[in-house]
Amino acid sequence: MADIFLNADDSRLVKELTSFGLKYDGAHQYWIIRLALTKSLSIKTPPDQSFDSHRTGGNQFHLRQVTGYGAAPDDNGNEQDFDLAIRAILSSYHEEDLFSDNKKYKNFLNRHICRGLSEFRSGWSRSHDFYGYLYQELVEPVANEKQIAGETSSSRLEQLKEALHELGVSASVKEILRGARLERFLLYLNDVSQYDVLKRGVDKLSFQMGLKNSAPVLSHTSERKVVSLDIPLPKNEQRTISPAPLEQWVGNSEFKIPIWLGQTVSGEDFGFDLAEAPHLLVAGTTGSGKSVCIHSIILSLLSGNSPEKLKLALIDPKQVEFAPYNGIPQLYDSKVVSFIDDADSLLSNLVDEMEERNRLLADVNESNLDVALANGSLDLPRIVLVVEELADLLMQSKELEGYLVRLAQKARSVGIHLVLATQRPDSTILTGLLRSNIPSRICLLVQKSTESKIVIDETGSEKLLGKGDMLIKMSGEQELHRVHGAMITEADRTRIVGRVR
Ligand SMILES: Nc1ncnc2c1ncn2[C@@H]1O[C@H](COP(=O)(O)OP(=O)(O)OP(=O)(O)O)[C@@H](O)[C@H]1O
Question: How many whole angstroms separate alpha carbon 440 and alpha carbon 417?
Fold first, then answer.
């Protein structure tokens, strides 16, 4: 006999969420049941009798599906039976012994599930991204609670004021923004000469505040006499950025080629339009989070564009990073390119494609693909070329630089955009001609301040926190954006790529 009963409406909702919410081949309805239980447990007051389900007209589930009751460990020895743990959680939630009263346990479990489903019904609709919804409902509130707890325990403001006083800097704290990995103090300097004093004294300030190895970063803002000082949070208070908002952000964006990367210091989503960039350089030392950042860019491109709208030309001299993208319908030349001869022919094909597109545009009396797409005179996909490690490529064949420079100079108007990544942002790899034609730049942690200058025309990236912490300079903008990139895991890639395939 079954243990958990749903009415007909709830059963329909579970079915709909399984197919249109999870969007995952082989998803089970009981996954939704488990999520509904989690949602209900996130509400502090117990569900009342109004959530008691009628035992007819809908689907039924066994405890084994809902709590794993009696299930043996899987092939890898991972536990699958969480019944005792769930009984303990419900007992403590309801302050009742639900170990000895099986009937009551099932009844409370059933109520929670029905309440969770009722929450899903009122908060989710088919046009919403279910993963994004779950993130907002289940993950973000916990993260925010932790953040507030961290904030109240922070005495950093007092420490900072004292350190500024010791340095002889006369400034007042205008605003504090607390991000996932640092606090940004906006300081109003009483007179501009204080800027040099502060700049020279940043190391001393760090020492005075006991910041150990995590260096503060000082930068200008667009406001007169206001500077920002980014001070890293203690390691145990730093948060990793989840990629959950990626698909929804991209889906809602009005940009032509929306790219989502993560969060700003004030916790807002950060994304940009690659069509406006129009080419991008991503630089960072090994382990800085460059590949993860590139995955965020590729997944944004994949989730926001059908193969008819966008093609991806991928060059991966390392042969591992882009392997998961082999076989996706968006691939230009239908494979990820790793070897130098293939890279040569891919780039030469792209240059030919650029020339051909120019001819096609001339035929319809247009000079720009954006306009031709908007007025319907041409229907061509945009193309994004992504190179995983530029240095590996150019060290094997310097001739390839010629193709890249031609594309960087002229491909924008025909809808071809470049994203070039490198561990080695030095002048041998990034020659003046290539660099000056790639106006938007992402700089992750680099080893030397001179490298930071090459990438974003300013020092500072050598003091970043690593692991996806980045400074971004967009084409035509003066102010830098400090962004914490999302941690894209293999599972995230598999999920999004699986959907695209
Ligand atoms: N945004 C992020 N949030 C949290 N951790 C991250 C983030 N990005 C990267 N990391 C961590 O840093 C590790 C290295 O990241 P990644 O492979 O992207 O570095 P990389 O710069 O490409 O290095 P390499 O050039 O050697 O491949 C990851 O395995 C992950 O543990």
Answer: 11
Q: Which atom of ligand 1 is nearest to the CA of 262?
A: 1
pLDDT at 479: 84
Name the pTM for this structure. 0.71
Give me the residues of the chain with pLDDT under 70, please.
Answer: 54-55, 140-154, 213
Residue 424: CA count within 13 A, CB half-sphere:
13
DSSP labels for 398-451?
Answer: TTHHHHHHHHHHHSGGGTEEEEEEES--STTTS-HHHHHT--EEEE---S-HHH
Q: How far is the CA of 257 from the centre of ligand 1 (A)?
A: 24
Residue 56 annotated as lining a ligand binding site: no
* Closest ligand 1 atom to 284 CA: 21
pLDDT at 148: 44
DSSP SS3 for 297: helix
288 is in an annotated binding site: yes
**In the block, residue with structure tokens 């210091």:** 265
Distance CA(213)–CA(207), nearest Å, equals 9
**203 alpha carbon to ligand 1 midpoint, in Å?**
27
290 is in an annotated binding site: yes
Q: Which atom of ligand 1 is nearest to the CA of 241?
A: 3
Assign 197 to helix, strand or coil. helix
Domains of the chain: 4-128 (1.10.1220), 151-237 (3.30.980.40), 246-500 (3.40.50.300)
Q: Is 16 helix (H, G, I), strand (E, B) or coil?
A: helix
| DSSP class of 73 | P
Nearest atom, ligand 1, residue 288 CA: 21
| Residue 202 near residue 173, CB atoms below 8 Å | no
DSSP string covering 39-54, please? HHHTSSSPP-GGGPPP
Going 431 to 436 to 442 to 444, the CA torsion angle's sign is positive
The answer to whether the annotation marks 286 as part of a ligand binding site is yes
Residues contacting ligand 1 via CB (< 6 Å): 240, 284, 286-292, 423, 467-468, 485-487
Cα 20 from chain centroid (whole Å): 23
* CA separation for the pair 87, 65 (Å, rounded): 15
Q: What is the pLDDT of residues 244-281, one digit of tens each?
A: 899 999 999 999 999 999 999 988 999 999 999 999 99
